[in-house]
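Revision sheet: structure tokens.
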Amino acid sequence: MPGEDAGGGLDAIRAEIDRVDLELVELLARRQRLVEQVVAFKREHHLGVVDRHREDEMLAAIGRSAQSRGADPRVARQVLRTIIDGFTLLEVEQLGPDPETADDRARP
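Predicted:
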């Protein structure tokens, strides 16, 4: 029957994927704690939320790291971009939008 697991192989692979996904969630929680420290620092030093240069550097580095580890750099950059965007939203909630970003959105 299509979709059935032949000899438990597919179920075993999926179980391992589930374990990796849980590890990713643990890493996201760890990253969030670090972002909270960044928010505190930015608040104390009156810094803006967005640092495009830093983001570009991170995306380039993650692409190189992915490639050297046998992962598709496009996927790695896309995932990191999503992570950055998600945590940037959390920063904006806590710090408010950057004035330049808010000005850009206000323009027609």
